[in-house]
Specification:
Helices cover about 80% and strands about 0% of the residues. With about 140 residues, it is mainly alpha-helical. It has one domain (about 30-135): Four Helix Bundle (Hemerythrin (Met), subunit A) (Up-down Bundle). Helix 2 (about 30-50) packs antiparallel against helix 3 (about 55-75) and helix 3 runs parallel beside helix 6 (about 120-135).
Amino acid sequence: MNSQTVITIVILLLLGLLFFVAYLNSKKIPVRKKEKIFEKIELLGAQINSDEEYARRDAVIRLDNVLGKALNIRYGNESTCGDNLKLAKKLFDKKLYQQVWDAHKVRNNIVHDDENISKTQALEIYKIYKLAVKRILK
């Protein structure tokens, strides 16, 4: 091989490496976005502990919105929480995936059927959403 061929191959390999690194960096979720979402979750933790049922119901609805936002960030889309949850199946073990779906269904029942939620149930849902968001934004 002559020197021009070797130089051409090296340049092409460097360009390929540059594009690969740029691709990997484009998939990373900005730290500030993660921080904002985790701050929202922590604020909702206090609301979940409320003795007022309407506050707990509101917190569950907001937690679901945070989950939906995390999924939108992860997948770079504006799809619904439910649609993105279907895409996110591989991010969770089977048990947690079912728990997230169950929590989402409770949220739907609160919104559509005016369902009440106990403090114990609200705390459990909070833990599920918090863990799910951590896995999504990993």
